[in-house]
Amino acid sequence: MASVGQKLKDARIAKGLTLDDLQQTTKIQKRYLIAIEEGNYDALPGKFYVKAFARQYAETVGLNPNEIIQELDQELGMPASPEEQAETTSRVQKREELTRPQDNSLSAKISKYLPTIIIVVVVVAILGTIYAVAWGNHEKAKNQQIEQTNTKVAVSTDVKKPAKKKKSESSSTSKKEQKIVNIASAGSTFTYNVENAPSQSTIELGASGGSSWDAVYIGGAQSWQGTLQSGATKEIQVPAGTSRVVLSIGNSNASTVKINGHKLNFLAQNSSLTVRKLVLNFTNGSSSTNAETQSQTQTAAQTQGQGQTVNNQNGYQTNQQQRYQQNNGQTNNYQTVTR
Fold first, then answer.
1. How many CB atoms lie within 10 A of CB 182?
2. CB atoms near residue 6 (< 10 Å)
3. With left for phi above 0 and alpha for psi between -120 and 50, is residue 18 left, alpha or beta?
4. Where is this region: Disordered (predicted)?
5. What are phi and psi of 161, to 5 degrees?
């Protein structure tokens, strides 16, 4: 009867495997494989490794590892331990289960996936319940919002009816629109009339695209002076009753001026100037009328004065002519008497 080592060797050769091939597959050192084939079990680290290496060798070359271990036990003269017998039994059962034909019927598949199906159905039911509750709350909130909107619309409609009357009343008493008119230009000085201005005005200085250095004079005294960086603004409150404000503007192309929210387009008068002085004359409706009346009175007075001057000049010339004629008559009479 052939030894275990010889059976393993014959099976290896029958499969066309070399010891190097077997070493690469089983990861068992080549010297241990040679020792098993030659029956030199003392060359291995211990009996446990003898059985483990022999089992792995047998599985690789296609022999029944359980039979090889049994023959190896007989050859070594030692029975298998209970642990080895249990391991051998479990291996046989696993192999039988793997080789046993599987039941591919529909009932077998359903029973296999039944727990998964139950879990999926429960999860779907929970999600459906949550969605139904959320949808119901959404519809309820939507209906409440519509009711509140309808109530607000009804209330606002009732409130807005008398508001039209107030609007018409305010429109009838609306003030005249402010106007800014350039009335004089001399060198770098430009004079503007701010007509229909409120009793207390606001001047806003700003800078855009560069820095602007400005100064404000109210009533002949300096009210503010400083440099505005690009994007910065400065508001100047003009006291009530002020009729004249002077602005000194540096870097005109980067400066802006607003009077009571109305932009002053000072670049329309000689846009090439960098530094300029802006004289603002503030007038409201009544002061404008008074100014016109005073201007007409002054014009009439000037005309009357000019007329009196002309009359005086004409009277003086007439008197001179009369005296000249009288002198000529006396001379002629004296010449006649002498002759």
1. 15
2. 13
3. beta
4. 78-101, 152-178, 286-314
5. -60, -50
Give Cα 285 distance to the centre of its chain.
Answer: 48
Is residue 233 pLDDT above 90, yes or no?
Answer: yes
Statement: residue 213 has pLDDT above 80? yes
Rounded to a whole number of angstroms, the CA Rg of the chain reads: 62
pLDDT digits (tens, 9 = 90+) for 9-33: 999 999 999 999 999 999 999 999 9
Q: Given this model, what pLDDT does residue 152 score?
A: 65
CA–CA gap between residue 229 and residue 215 (Å, rounded):
14
CB 273 within 8 A of CB 219: no
| Chain position carrying tokens 């003009």 | 238
Q: In what order do the strands lie in the sheet with 189-195?
A: 179-186, 189-195, 276-282, 244-249, 212-218, 221-228
Backbone φ and ψ of 233, nearest 5°: -135, 160
Separation in Å, CA 52 to CA 58, 86, 309: 10, 15, 148
SS3 205: strand
pLDDT band at 106 (very low <50, low <70, confident <90, very high): confident
What class is the 4-99 domain? mainly alpha
Given a contact cutoff of 8 angstroms between Cβ atoms, the answer to whether 277 and 187 are in contact is no
Contact 233, 211 (CB under 8 A): no
Q: How far apart are the first and last CA of the chain?
A: 209
Please say if the pLDDT value at position 112 is more than 70. yes
